[in-house]
Amino acid sequence: MSFIVQSGKVDNFTSTIKDAQPWYTITYPQPFPAGMIPVISAQIQTYEGPDLPSIRLRNVTNTGFEVTITVAKGYQEKRFSTESLGWIAVAH
Fold it and tell me: 85 - beta bridge partners?
């Protein structure tokens, strides 16, 4: 069984208040073959602010996906921080 693996990093990724989160589109360096939808793993790779950020993904396709960083209610200080986000996409 063979696997196709792609990865990337997004610097200057902004975390925001949970109710006003922007969604960012990540496009793979090379599209996966038609009908092949990869599994995505994303991780915040820095800790630049006082917030406890988490990752949300949506709209995963063979060409890319959307991602956002949110902060848990109760931990937000109405302050924005900038983080680095790493991701990996794997399909077989």
Answer: 10, 44
Alpha carbon distance 73, 75 (integer Å)? 5
CA distance 58 to 26: 11
Q: Residue 29 is encoded by which pair of tokens?
A: 């360096």
**Parallel, antiparallel, or unpaired for β 81-91 and 4-15?**
antiparallel
Largest pairwise CA distance in the chain = 48
Sequential pLDDT tens for the chain (92 residues): 789 999 999 888 775 555 556 788 999 999 999 989 999 999 988 887 666 778 889 999 999 999 987 766 665 555 567 788 999 999 99
Sign of torsion over alpha carbons 23, 63, 57, 40: negative
Domains of the chain: 4-91 (2.60.40.2080)
